[in-house]
Fold these 2 entries.
Entry 1:
Amino acid sequence: MSKADFYMSNDPLITNLNNAGDSKIDVFGVPFDATSTYRIGSRFAPNAIREAFQNIEIYSKRLGKDLEEINIRDLGNLTKVGEINEMNKMVEEVTREIIANGKIPAILGGDHSLTNGSVRAFDNCTVVVFDAHLDFRNEFEGLKLSHATFLRRLYEDGCMSNLIHIGSRAATKDEWDFVDRDDITLIDMERIYDLNTGLKQFKDTLSSSNDVYVSIDLDVIDPAFAPAVGNPEANGLSSREMLQFIYCLENFNLTGFDIVELIPAYDNGSTAALAARLLAELICIADR
Ligand SMILES: [Mn+2]
């Protein structure tokens, strides 16, 4: 190893290939926020999450795993991301390639619409979405496809064998009516007021799942804990409650995940730190 290899880093990438082996987890960023309708700037989030990640402890006491022993490769950020259909196509193709190589994609948004690309790369897995909003609008501000409608599109196109939606508290009456059906498990905020009830419902539903893809819109967490998001919504999960849900995934086959909607310009560091913690724990869970 040269002195440059030893002393220099290609910050903010989080690549860690200590065992000279192949990566198990492939990270990439999607600096896209063109469909944001309130606060914009999530295009800057991938690097902010990386920077926070570089500055947290990476041994998970709860999971008994050390990230230094997990091979991670950071592919960098998508380039030329301007238009949603093009972005979705790139995300789907890159995700598909990562899966074909036998690795697990860890995607850093960007706004939530990227999930419309990533989920399509999987053949019918259970999708777990953490979000204050349902994102089940048929159309929003003239767009059929945006961060507020993408889940409706994925559902209509039959891209999910199962949907578990956690933490919702903000949606139109039409959306609430729409999601009231058998193949959608809704663990909305009111059910989480008694945390153990919510956790039990989550575990019970997961137990019949095979592959699981997880999408975390950081606005599921209360603005008191995660203020820097595109559409803050009061009455959310605490950081601790959020992690309790994440740890429920421990013995399941986590095949990919994304973390979206962080806006660094509104952050005092707390939201990025939480995003980095979620990234770390999810990588530990995915490495099994
Ligand atoms: Mn949301």
Entry 2:
Amino acid sequence: MDTNDKVIYLDNAATSWPKPPVVSQAMSEFLAKDAANPGRAGHRMAVAAEKMLDQARGQLTEFIGGTDSHRLIFTMNCTDALNIAFKGFLRAGDHVITTTLEHNSVSRPLQAMADGGFISLTRVEFSPRTGVIDPADVQRAIGPKTRLIALSHAGNVLGTVQPATEVGRIAQEHGVKFLLDMAQTMGVIPIDVVRQHVDMLAFPGHKSLLGPTGTGGLYVHTSVSVADLAAFREGGTGGDSSSPLQPRIFPYFLEGGTPNTVGVAGLAAAARYVQGFGPEKILAHERQLVQRFVDAAGDIDGVIIYGPTGANAAANRVGTISFNVDGHSPHEIGGILDEAFSMAVRPGLHCSPYAHKQIGSFPEGTVRLSPGHFNTSDDIDALVAALREITA
Ligand SMILES: Cc1ncc(COP(=O)(O)O)c(C=O)c1O
């Protein structure tokens, strides 16, 4: 098979690559054997496909400390999960608190609802030095109409991990629901939805969980009832066909249409791989690579690193960091790294314009480096050497 082993891939925050071989194996095995439409018929292939989905639901629910696997909804990606949550849960007149760290998949649906006069919105700022929000600011923003707090567990520009436990506690104390966007943390930072008071959790399957693109999920904890939600995608469910409306039972309530069974087969294999390897070991490796970059690139003339720097730059990060090279646009640096050095990094705004406004890199953005599970110290050393050459 033709592979891309000449490229140094450092764009795992967008989607992880490569995937563990068990992922494509599980997908081709499922395709070859059981890839019927789950639940749509009583035949053995449909039953096998349904069983595979159920097992994957159970496995991922356990991964996040959930209590009811029927409440884990498979989605196309994290954006899809966030839209299902926002559009299903929010009501006219609600006040929502979010932050300036958020990805457009949080910012845009909320801004559109605010512009339409449907909700009011407060964006809590983070500290550009630490890259972290202050939970006290979230508490201060709560008012009589606040119904939801939406927070990314780690921002995708600076990679800094947010105080989800404290925010969950504040939300619970004030009777406000808490939606956690685990786009950058699912698979590397453990979560317990019960202990950490997470009411809805959105995650992609294709980033740190190492699954295929086209996968993700939304877990709706028992603290949010069916009555609190509106169906987002109404259609076939494979059962209860006589009902004129979407059946109000999890997971079918939020899962209209044929699911991405092939993708979920790959996602389940990926999650087993991650669990077996150890999320904490994967995180430690990614942090070590980020720290190696900071230690080596920090003293190159003209290289500006955003967020925490110094000896503990990676201590509160996932494997993501942003930098710029003085006098060059991020797109220029990204282009040179790609064309002259075969390195895949991500230049620009990374779908998070508010974060760049706060760190002073708007509108050009930054160069984002996001090493993953399969990167090595040599990859980082090669990047640093390339930056030395570019800046010389
Ligand atoms: C913090 C954050 N939230 C949401 C998303 C959207 O995820 P997806 O690409 O799976 O839709 C991303 C993607 O990079 C992200 O970084």
